[in-house]
């Protein structure tokens, strides 16, 4: 298997597939609208990639077509993004210590990221009443760089956020 990537823009031929997957993969309260991703298409510091296995649309970063999950595509996409960016990769996942109706799904997601080299930053991103555990893959969690990313989003009126740290007595 060798995935290829293509930048997603407003002229992207499979935009409908991207939107459908985005709607399927993320709960409404956590979903970033496709229009928001496309706002960054002309910037050098943000990229939105689609991935293909030959001609078949596999997905985009952190979202794989349902019928293609558990086939190694997520792992390959993480490797490709790590190679492309050559820096610490950051992401947020649903917390395991909250009451929810999808705990097994959350555990499986966390296990997947840990198996692929992600570590906990022992910190949580909180916004709009939601809370996510911050994971990183690389040498260390750079809170300042992380805050800079979200400060840019906040400056563009996307959302307000704050970071909370886990006390070791909490787990």
SSE arrangement:
Elements: E1 4-7, H1 15-25, H2 34-38, E2 49-53, E3 56-60, E4 63-64, H3 73-85, E5 89-94, H4 103-115, E6 119-127, E7 130-137, H5 143-155, E8 162-165
Antiparallel strand pairs: 1-2, 2-3, 3-4, 5-7, 6-7, 6-8
Task: Describe the fold and architecture.
The strands form two sheets. This protein has a four-stranded antiparallel sheet, with helices on both faces. A four-stranded antiparallel sheet has the order 5-7-6-8. The protein has five helices and eight strands, in the order βααβββαβαββαβ. The chain has helices at residues 15-25, 34-38, 73-85, 103-115, 143-155, and strands at residues 4-7, 49-53, 56-60, 63-64, 89-94, 119-127, 130-137, 162-165. The model has no long low-confidence stretch (mean pLDDT 87). The chain has 171 residues and is of the alpha+beta class.
Mean pLDDT: 87
Strand content: 25-35%
- State the separation between the terminal residues, measured CA to CA: 39 Å
**Looking at the chains present, what oligomeric state does this protein adopt?**
single chain
Total strand segments: 8
Helix content: 25-40%
- Shape designation: globular
Uncertain ranges: none
Please state the structural category: alpha+beta
What count of helical segments does DSSP give?
Answer: 5
Determine Rg (CA atoms, Å).
16 Å
Q: What is the strand arrangement across the widest sheet?
A: 1-2-3-4
Sheet with the most strands, sense and barrel status: 4 strands, antiparallel
List the helices and strands in order: EHHEEEHEHEEHE
């Amino acid at each position: 298997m060798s995935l290829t990537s293509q930048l997603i823009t407003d002229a992207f031929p499979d935009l409908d597939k991207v939107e459908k997957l985005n709607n399927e993969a993320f709960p409404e309260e956590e979903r970033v609208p496709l229009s928001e991703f496309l706002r960054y298409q002309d910037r050098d510091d943000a990229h939105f990639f689609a991935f293909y296995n030959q001609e078949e649309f596999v997905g985009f970063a952190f979202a794989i077509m349902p019928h293609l999950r558990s086939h190694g595509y997520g792992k390959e996409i993480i490797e490709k993004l790590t190679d492309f960016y050559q820096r610490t990769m950051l992401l947020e996942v649903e917390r395991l210590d909250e009451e929810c109706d999808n705990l097994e799904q959350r555990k499986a997601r966390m296990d997947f990221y840990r198996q692929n080299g992600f570590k906990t930053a022992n910190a949580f991103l909180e916004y709009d009443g939601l809370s996510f555990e911050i994971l990183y893959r690389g040498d260390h969690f750079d809170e300042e760089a992380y805050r800079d990313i979200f400060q840019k989003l906040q400056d563009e009126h996307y959302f307000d956020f704050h970071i909370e740290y886990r006390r070791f007595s909490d787990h």
